[in-house]
Task: structure prediction
Amino acid sequence: MSDDLLVALTTTTIVHQGRSYRIERGVTVVYADDEVVQGRERLFGPLRVTRLGGRVPPAAGGAVETATAGPGERREVRLAQPEQDAGQDADPYASWTRKDLVAECKARDLPAYGSKDELIARLRAGEPDGT
Result:
């Protein structure tokens, strides 16, 4: 079932059918067949589940999680960060084609003309965090 799940590779806002969806890198998890994902697959990667300490999780049905922190203590949970391809910038738009950038600008009701760099700048400026 984890093969059907994707995790966001970037933090951005997706506009779908007039509604905005905020996705956060390494936090937002969606089903691969979700309507919002269609046409934006490049923003997501497969969710990987890591078994810590080589332990196999107990069978479902009445299984109880073992505590990893004492009473009143917070336990530390870390998400595995998606791996970047060597030579690829951390900028998610860098690998997009101009056609993809134009389509995303149109989806966000932004002007869809100009060079690839201008389209990328326009998309970044249209994001809530301005990056």
Q: What stands out?
A: The chain has a mean pLDDT of 76. DSSP finds two helices and five strands in the chain. Strands lie at 5-8, 12-16, 19-23, 29-31, 44-46.
